[in-house]
Design a protein that fits this description.
By secondary structure, the protein is of the alpha+beta class. It has seven helices and three strands, in the order ααααββααβα.
């Protein structure tokens, strides 16, 4: 994405959220410039529709996760330079859905989730595109002290097991 498009979209988001400094915008651009302009426009619009006016500006991780979600919901717009394969580790999705924090609220438990790319197959390319920093196995996730696999049942039960 070109800097002009990025700046235009950031200004639009700043009308809804708290403003960023120029240094923060520079850091944000360095982390997000690989995102195509069309996708970034959609991501910004989604944040505007989901955040309350005056909310804190979305973090870099929030924006990166929105990019991953955008790619997952628009697979036809992502180049396919690999053959999808069956994977017994992740079920062929290319990633694991994990809960990294559970917070009680007056509405019940709130689960904060993310997705981690599978180390056994290359199907993560359909969701992540570029190679993530770390690829994960099911065993590594199960041994991690704060991650709980969503496909293993209720998270509260897994927390009690540990």
């Amino acid at each position: 994405m070109k800097i002009e498009e990025f700046t235009s979209q950031i200004q639009k988001l700043e009308k809804w959220c708290k403003r960023l400094t120029d240094d923060q915008k520079d850091l944000l651009y360095e982390q997000l410039k690989h995102i195509p302009a069309e996708a970034f426009r959609d991501i910004v619009n989604d944040f505007i529709h989901s955040l309350r006016p005056g909310s804190p500006f979305p973090s870099i991780n929030d924006l990166k996760e929105a990019w991953i979600a955008w790619k997952a919901s628009h697979p036809e717009k992502i180049a396919r330079e690999y053959e999808e394969e069956f994977c017994s580790e992740c079920g062929g999705k290319g990633y694991f859905e994990v809960v990294y924090e559970v917070v009680p609220s007056r509405f019940g438990l709130i689960e904060y989730t993310t997705i981690l790319p599978c180390a056994k197959c290359k199907n993560w390319k359909k969701v992540f595109g570029e190679k993530p920093r770390k690829l994960w196995t099911r065993e590594e996730i199960e041994k991690h002290p704060t991650f709980y696999l969503k496909d293993r049942g209720h998270v509260a039960e897994q927390m009690e097991e540990q």
